[in-house]
Amino acid sequence: MRRRVDGIAAAIVVNAMGDKLPIKGGRVMYEWLAKEIAEVKEPKFHIVDGPADKRLRKAIETTERAAPKSYKSFALEMGNSRLYRKDGDDFYHVEVFASMQEIEYPVGQMWNWIGEYLGHKACFRLDLMRGERESPIFEWYSGPNGSYALEIAKGFDRWLKLRCGHARKKYLKRRWKEIHAGPAPFTPEEQAIVAARQKFRWKFLGIAKNGDLRVQIHNGSDIVIPYFSLRIDHRGGGTAGGITIKVIDLDPGETRVFEQDCYKDLYAPIDMVPADYPPLGPEDRGRYWELSKDAPRARRTKKRK
Fold first, then answer.
1. Which of these, 79, 100, 222, 299, could form a disulfide with 49 (CB 3.0-4.6 Å)?
2. pLDDT (0 to 100) of residue 279
């Protein structure tokens, strides 16, 4: 996974589409991260856009906005990045955006939002930023008296190394070996479930009186699978989580309407938007009930006409 370019070790990173993207040219500032990404064989564990294209590179290099050099270097080398996929769900420990988002949080205080750690916003404080000089990174947390910001590191580079180090400690040694080796291929039974799932069709019908989501599902496959999972997005952007609908009684060729609770104690149901997950791979075991070892077995049955 590694090769030499112009006499300098260049790591290969993988973007969200699974494309291998070599970081070319001279020595890169984040070679330590690129090297780690290249050594991991588990798909989706790290997802990065890869080096900036000519248009984005020009925009980053010529911007008049204050932006620390270490952050700009990361944006040029890696782009939007999701690092260290959490076990058990589809969220990531560390996220970095390729461009800063100016936000007011709370009222009267301006920040440049550049990423997240465990869902906590990571920001530069706008009034402390000076050109390309390093600027402290703050993270936002919620407490009994409201939200508050904590200074985590004196600069972006220190924050990234610190949070990546913390993320790595979330995995046991045995799990790290699995991450580096990559997942075992699907078993025939798992492959049958994944193939069947691709033939399912669904339609969002709206909100039930009790606040549950109403989803119409058609089983276009030739087997019965125990569960069917959908991603749940916030209407304003971003992922809220997911839902798993029990479809073990949905025979091939049958269509039925299901009502499913969906974070209604946390969010307004109208703001929850169902969406498809990307095609499932062996690395998704343990994240979706379709592939859970504790789920009922899929079974074949005659297709209803």
1. 79
2. 86
